[in-house]
Amino acid sequence: MKVALVHDWLVTHRGGERVLDALCEVLPDADIYTLVHKPGSQSPAIESRRIFTSFLQRIPGIHARYRHFLPLMPRAIEALRLQDRYDLVLSSSHCVAKGLRTPAGTPHLSYVHAPMRYMWDLFDDYFGPGRASPPVRAAAHAVRPWLQRWDRETAAGVDRFVANSHHIAAKVRRFWGRDATVIHPPVALERFANVPLEGGGRGGYFLWLGAFAPYKRLDVALEAFRELGVPLWVVGTGQEASRLMSGPVPPHIRFLGNVSDDALPGLYRDARALIFTPEEDFGITPLEAQATGRPVIAYGRGGALETVTSRTGLFFSEQTPAALAAAVRQFEVWEPSFRPEDARSQAERFSRVAFQRAILSEADALLRLGRHSTARTAGV
């Protein structure tokens, strides 16, 4: 089976790219099509492929400024042409990847991390007051109706959708009017599950980990822990770093920046709990934390409701510092009842192998449906 994998951009290596890496492992001859590729930014499984990019790749400094070209991305993905004949197109999409134009008769299976969140329900998180400059906000409001229309119309070019969570499947139905099967994304749990369960949480700190993107709501955690006076360690960086790190930082809050993959399991294990503030499409970090035997304090919406249980964590109902602070205080009472083995058992439900088997089954079902349709058309 000759497959074309389509991904929005290859600039950083985060959750979406880990999904692509898992797809590359089970589709060893697949080519990759993407808007922009920063060489060396991806895993060997991705970097070793034939990678075709759009006209955006030729813009000087694009790897640092690709987000600024959002209005051009629909045109760029539509102009990206397949360089071979393929049995299947499999897109991994959170922005425009699903909009790649496929030849007639070539089935298109789209794995959806999210509909274009910054143009739909999370628009204000990215472009609301205080989130962007007035010119950027004005431009975003101007292009939003057109991008929403394009996003909805290009959904018709996909034969079958798979969503990474029930939360996202509901958005696919709401924004695009399409149904989607649910396959949770793969989590590389092996290196986290190798740490011993005994002795976890002894670091005495709570841990926040992720990209400093607007919707991640690190600001909620920082304000809550300033009030609590309890140690919070923050791992990551990103577009909001200058805003979030400006001004005096209290000594009980530590910014660690990006840390190595080797250091992450130990950071999780020594934390009392992971603090998870976004309304995430799925969210891999809660599962990584649980794999090391640690609980999660999560905002009770989105993918966290599918990965964290009442035995492995607590939820707060409002995305505010006060609600999070209340949950941390409740955690002090709840913590003695927590069992690390429950957390690890929950995480093991989301393995890489389970994802790969499920996505190949979806691809096979779509290909068999296509062959059946062709046979009927030919009068067989």
Automatic annotation (TrEMBL):
Keywords: Transferase. Residues 15-191 form the Glycosyltransferase subfamily 4-like N-terminal domain. This is Glycosyltransferase family 4 protein. It comes from the Bacteria. SUPFAM superfamilies: UDP-Glycosyltransferase/glycogen phosphorylase. GO terms for molecular function: glycosyltransferase activity. PANTHER family: GLYCOSYLTRANSFERASE.
